[in-house]
Amino acid sequence: MSLSRSTLRTTGVAVRAMAVATLVLGIGYTALVTVMGLALPAPANGSLLRDADGQVVGSSLIGQSFTDAGGRPLAQYFQSRPSAAGDGYDAAASSGSNLGPNSDDLVAAIEERRAAVADREGVDVAEVPADAVTASGSGLDPHISPAYADLQVARVAAERGLAPAEVRDLVATHTAGRDLGFLGEPRVNVVELNAALDAVQDAALDGLAR
After folding, report:
1. Is the distance from CB of 77 to CB of 97 less than 8 angstroms?
2. Cα 78 from Cα 7, distance rounded (Å)
3. Are 193 and 145 in contact (CB under 8 A)?
4. What is the model's pLDDT at position 36?
5. CA 127 – CA 123 distance, rounded (Å)
6. Residues 146, 188: contact at Cβ < 8 Å?
């Protein structure tokens, strides 16, 4: 039995639609993504950060805990905000604390963190900014506020034997403004900042060794 004209027309439309979809989505889209990956290799590969020896030291998109084996903050580094992702900045366990503002546990944790930060930086507890004692929703945010970064400048400069002005210049370099000029708040990428500090110190040591 021969196919009806309507069936042939429907089949022809389906075949043409499949051909167009294959060209646009199967070939065109794949080619576009490949070209973008070649043109923007850093974002395509995870925005990895490398030291002077080419070793990967992190990603500018994911925060890190700058602590020793016992979990104590390393004084020569700017400290990140707290993280509730796993044991801290665990990309496989991204999450917030799920504790609300009425949680006694959260209030106690914030007060404990505020006292610890104030003691470490040698300031009054009233000067400790909110992001120094609260985790981000993802637990992976690599940024802190300019206020929290400024609070840490004196300690980091003293520990590294650098002038505070030099450290502030590095902070400014790694501070991003509001997106599109009005969205969000200015922020400092701690991972990039600490990597830059290490690079400055390594370069200074190399210069002395020569």
Report:
1. no
2. 70
3. no
4. 63
5. 7
6. yes
Written as six digits, the tokens of 196 are 């830059």
Residue 192: partners with Cβ closer than 8 Å, 6 or more residues away: 49, 60, 142, 174
Structure tokens at 2: 């021969």
Contact 206, 89 (CB under 8 A): no
Beta-ladder partners of 62 = 59
Distance of CA 37 to the CA centre of its chain: 20
Cα–Cα distances in angstroms (integers) from residue 65 to residues 4, 94, 140, 184, in the given order: 69, 14, 10, 24
3-class DSSP state of 41: helix
Q: Which two tokens stand for residue 79?
A: 């400290």
pLDDT tens profile 130-187: 999 999 989 999 999 999 999 999 999 999 999 999 999 999 999 999 988 888 899 9
Residue 8 exposed, middle or buried by CB count within 10 Å (0-12, 13-18, 19+): exposed
| SS3 at position 199 | helix
Residue 156 is predicted with a pLDDT of 98
In angstroms, the CA 185 to CA 182 distance is 8
The single-letter code of the amino acid at 51 is D
